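Kindly inspect what follows.
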Amino acid sequence: MLVTYIYTPLLAAVIVLMASLHSYAINVLVSPPEVVPGDVFLLKITSADNAPVEVTFLDRKVDLYPSEWGLISLIPLDVNTSPGKHKIHVRHGGDISIASVEVKSHTFRSIKLTLPEEKVTLSPEDQKRVDKEYGLQQDIWGKNTKPVWDGQFAAPLDTEISTEFGVRRIMNEKKTSVHRGMDFRGKTGIPVKALNAGTVVLSQDLFYGGNTVVVDHGMGLYSVYMHLSKFNVHNNSKVEKGQVIGFVGSSGRATGPHLHLSVKLNGLSVNPESLFKLEL
């Protein structure tokens, strides 16, 4: 039987609407769209249905979490990420969408330091302790809990930055290390505040970091506060954003009182300043 369709303006409108619904079944937002190596960026995904969503970036699966916006993820960039436009593959049901983030070329500054030899080359006993503490921290970074942070992340101190993230330090002309955190100036005893809500998963004296507090914010995101003069929290403490977790000091391998802040995301060290700038 031959069926004849009469093409009317109403039918045309329905076809356009159905096409629009299919085209806009998923929306992917990358914020910010331009970053530099070592940054963290935010991925937001909303869809018009409940079809499963899977994301990969740099050949790695991205964990997604439900939020008031839809699905979200915080994605870290290694400090050695090559510049260029990097694709984000989003599979929604049977469809694949491609988003991208632009990684800009960036040159981190280098500084030369002259230190006592014992500060550069560790004794066998110290190296054994460092290796043990490294393993302890790796176990922490491997755990991924549900997000408990609330809104914007804020700096732990309102003082100046003495050494920014990514600085390459050449010690005694023979050893190079990358500064994978931020150093805040501060006098001994100044209160240090939590970047956001979370749970204390470590409060311990470490070889390099001295009195160190690690807060788990969920989604594989951890903030690390080093060289404290004393603690104001203990393991398993629940903390709120802005709560005092310790006080500035010079414990561990520090040459003077300051706060070294590190941020770990999915095991990678990221620039805390990029986290503070995210609109969450």
User: Anything to note?
Assistant: Helices lie at 9-23, 117-120, 124-141, 272-277. The longest helix spans residues 124-141. The chain is about 15% helix and 40% strand.
